[in-house]
Amino acid sequence: MFKFFVTLLTPYSSLSAFKGTHGDNMQYLLAIAFALFFTFTAHAKVEFLNSPGPYWEQKILVTLTQVNEFLPAHWNTPDKVRIQHSPQPDLSYSFTKQLVSVGVDVSDLLMHEYAHLLLDKYIHEHCPGWSYFFARKMVQDKELKDGIADKQSNLNSLKQALIDFEKDEFSQQYIKNVQNSIRQIESQLRFLNNANKNDEFYRQSYAQLNYYKLLIPYHELFADAVVSLVTNNWFAMKNASQKMLELTRVHPALPAALTWEEFLNYRIFDINLKVETYSFASWENDSPYTQFAPFRSEFRVLVSNGFTSKSEMILKLAESIAQEFETQIRQTKPQILSLREKNLFLLERLKIKISAMSEI
Ligand SMILES: [Zn+2]
After folding, report:
1. Domain-wise residue ranges, the chain
2. Distance of CA 340 from the midpoint of ligand 1 (Å)
3. Amino acid 356: pLDDT
4. Average pLDDT over residues 202-218
């Protein structure tokens, strides 16, 4: 019936809290219905941090389920999703913590942040270059072999200390802490040694390219595409961003050349723009949201042509982005692509994938 489901970690304790807070029978019954639905159909878990209550959690679960149901059956959805309530009036996704923060109730924007998490997981699984990036950050941008040597020496000292502590019958809690640190460093060393196997593929491009800056515009494109397809509205992200501004009155930073209205128009999937003829402005490089205007337009045409289902288009877009990113960073003489090249190369990849599917 459903492709993917989410569940509360503690539905029953949440329910009693819900009753106590609201004391409204109708709402309470609704909460039970939601909780049972999500509990009995559970495949994956959502962990809520700093949750203000079950009503907030259930609204989030509804949005995540809407996205998950839309994804193709063979999409490898996350086993666990972490959602944090933010005291700030914003929504965001942390790439380092793999955590979505929610401080405003705008479901389309939550969908956008969740799409970041989905693509991030996909990139982690399909782009060893992204793991290499994290490994280098883990050792503060040192050469990996030097970072590994430092960690190894740290590990040796801890192991020696543990032997000494045990001889001296040191406090059990202290010994436990050292054992935890040892386990943590051993796990980091496994990750670093794995990444180090790919050092020759990435060391040159890592020195010359900012992987994060390179990937993020693709991420924003993907997250906006997911919202537009799931809601069946090419203007969804513009509308959601306007709603966010009305609720928070917080203006995001804009490229100097743009008004707020012009900036928001980059979030829609417009008609009649062509990658071949589009006139790119240099400042479109200044924001991760303004780099794929003609691609968005051509993407809309591809979706409208119906060569493949909308849900399959999400997967094909993720595949194209992962391959495009990996190709760019896996070069001995890395180059920063122009905006036209970025739009064109991604579009070509996507078209090849779609035509391969229609031939099946
Ligand atoms: Zn985003």
Report:
1. 6-126, 128-201, 211-359
2. 22
3. 87
4. 94
